[in-house]
Amino acid sequence: MSKIDLDAEESPLAAKAAVNPRKRGPLFLGLILAVAALGSAYYAYDTLYASRHAITDNAYVGADVAQITPLVAAPVVEVLASDTEMVRKGDVLVRLDDTDAKLALAMAEATYQNAIRRVTALVANDKGLAAQIVGREADQAQAAAQLASAEAGYAKARIDLDRRKTLAGNGSVSGDEITAVETLLKTAEANLSSARAGAAGAAAAHDAAVAAKEANAAMISGVGIDDNPEVLAARSARDQAKVNLERTVMRAPVDGVISRRQVQVGQRVQPGMTLMVVVPLQAAYVDANYKEVQLAHVKPGQTVTLVSDLYGSDVPFTGKVVGFSGGTGAAFSVVPAQNATGNWIKVVQRLPVRIALDPAELAAHPLQVGLSMTADIAIAE
Fold first, then answer.
1. Which helix (H) or strand (E) holds 324?
2. Residue 91 lies inside a defined structural domain of this protein
């Protein structure tokens, strides 16, 4: 092929290359206009909408579930609720064997009645002990009189003996008479010793009666029979036995739906075991995990529009911001981040925001715990 032919073939390409630079100008202009339009649209969106709303799809339905746990140890005889079943507050959920509880109540009742009788006897005994003290005082008076009489008899016998010994020197008194008077003195001395012992015994008996009355009074003084400590202790034990008997019937503490049932008939349960939970769906709320950079203008009381993945955007929910959690999710994790280490990398944290839902909307469109939600807080309010 000749050089002339090659030039002829290349001439159309050269012509196109000559035309393209003139077409590039409008293309670049269109691109610039498109970028400007997108930027203007984003600015308008950010200014008019995004800056007035805090939105996150990291939100989930929650509720303060009630755990059903036994407070007494006993075998299960009946389970009256199953998973997904709706129950009302006060409905019987589980019955435990109450044989031991009934026996314990009967024993506690007997102990209580015995305590009442014992205290009643103490009250009655107090009057008897008071009468005993009066009797012991009379015994003391009698013993004192006998002692005085014995002392007088001893003194007289001593004087008689001394007189006769004086007269014995001139022969006025015989030896037999002196012997008789000495015998009388010894008898008076014995009577005096006996009277002294009787007086001491009467005093001891009086002191014993007083001590017995004081000890009895200490058991009953200042309170009536019903307020006596012994009776109160027995009554408390009986009341505890009654409570334990009532606890063999386990009832729903709130309205809700049964979940996580883990109990069967015949199983022996212990205090603290979780048998099931009651989820109060009518009191459900939403925990929305917002980034910390979104929360500068969020405050309690602001209106929240929520959409659930269950119902979609056709069923919006209205809520109110209740408050903020005391810490981020990372702070309360099982293994919290150690930001003090040398290889630290900053990560934007999320803070749970509690949102209360409208009970009427929940009744019309129930939500279950754990469902995903999208939360939109109107921060312009």
1. strand 316-324
2. yes
